[in-house]
Amino acid sequence: MRKKSLEASNGKKPEIETEKDREFLKEEIKTVDSGINDDGVFIFGSLMTPLEFSQKLKKTPQEIIKYFFMKGIAINLNTLMTKDQMGEYCLECGYDFK
């Protein structure tokens, strides 16, 4: 078990003392880039706003907002979309969602 956590008790990031600690942190903090791969599958990495999501899908944010407005869901450019909402819109556009 490791003594260090990703965040110290005072809320600051821990200092990395050795190369071994650095490698451990790199393995712990793996990010997945969201986007469409070559097979037409949208890979979900994190929650996004309609603006960020539209840039990944190469659509306009207005199309996404209009789609959900027509379904009775009010969202705006600053709203974080849920995983279900992103998956639903991807399927509507003909992409698989992972």
Task: Characterize this entry briefly.
The protein is built from four helices and three strands, in the order αββαααβ. With 98 residues, the protein is mostly helical. It has a three-stranded mixed β-sheet, covered by helices on one side.
Explained architecture:
It is a single chain. This protein is mostly helical. The chain has a domain at 35-97. It contains 4 helices and 3 strands; from the N terminus they run H-E-E-H-H-H-E. It has helices at residues 19-28, 50-57, 61-70, 83-93, and strands at 35-36, 41-43, 96-97. Strands 1-2-3 form a 3-stranded mixed beta sheet, covered by helices on one side. A hairpin with a 4-residue loop joins strand 1 and strand 2. Helix 2 crosses helix 3 (61-70). The longest helix has 11 residues, at 83-93. It is elongated. Residues 1-6 and 28-32 have low confidence and may be disordered.
Strand order across the largest sheet: 1-2-3
User: What is the H-and-E element order?
Assistant: HEEHHHE
Fraction of residues in H or I helices = 25-40%
Estimate the global geometry from the Cα principal axes: elongated
> Whole-number average pLDDT?
75
Q: Terminal Cα separation, in Å?
A: 32 Å
Q: Helices and strands: which structural class? A: mainly alpha
Which regions contain 5 or more consecutive residues with pLDDT less than 50?
1-6, 28-32
What is the strand tally?
3
